[in-house]
Amino acid sequence: MHPTQRLFVIASQARRSMSSPFAIVAGVGPGTGATVAGKLGASYPVALLARNPANYQDAVKDIEAAGGRAIGIPTDVTDPTSVKSAMGKIQKELGGDKCAAAVFNVGGKFIVKPFLELNQEEYESGWEANGRGAFLFSQAVLPMLLNSTDLQHPPTLIFTGATAGFRGSARAAAFSTGKFALRSLSQSLAREFGPKGVHVSHVNIDGIIDIPRTHEWMKDAGPDAKIKPEA
Length: 231
Description:
By secondary structure, the chain is an alpha/beta fold. Helices cover about 40% and strands about 15% of the residues. The chain has helices at about 5-10, 30-40, 55-65, 80-95, 120-145, 175-195, and strands spanning about 20-25, 45-50, 70-75, 100-105, 155-160, 200-205. Strand 4 (about 100-105), helix 5 (about 120-145) and strand 5 form a beta-alpha-beta unit.
């Protein structure tokens, strides 16, 4: 089953479940994160995480306006204290410790720069977001996912990746390193936790998402050059 279809399936089970599981989306912004949170929020209480509250505020309002329940929590996924605090707030405000779906949608800095001009801080930024961040997020949500294997459909951990995680491009060493780490982690977790009842998948988003920040990108390439978030 395609990961996008799986999101709809696990969302629909909330109507039949008495355990009131929730969903968590990290890396919420005006594109993929907000769209995924909205889909899950149609049936589940959902927690939206982002470093900047402005990135999730509209999505929270949209979910609540549609009759759902949502909370936004400012979170730096690269900081273990911040991640731990966020998980505590989620369990307190949404109740219990059953998580039906957790989505890691953190992009990290998109640095395009000649390798010999790249400094250490810039290089490590890609790994910090997608390597360390995914590690901390996974360690925080997996106990709650493991506690939800009695649901009708397997609890699910989804990582959104990029083509940079399959093929490193010139001048993109920092970004590619992080995305390769993310994909490798997802494969390892899938093999470890799949047999325990948790579905883990890595979704490759092969293109530029059409959001306000990218409106000026590839302007002359035609209307199909970028991916609509709702797709």
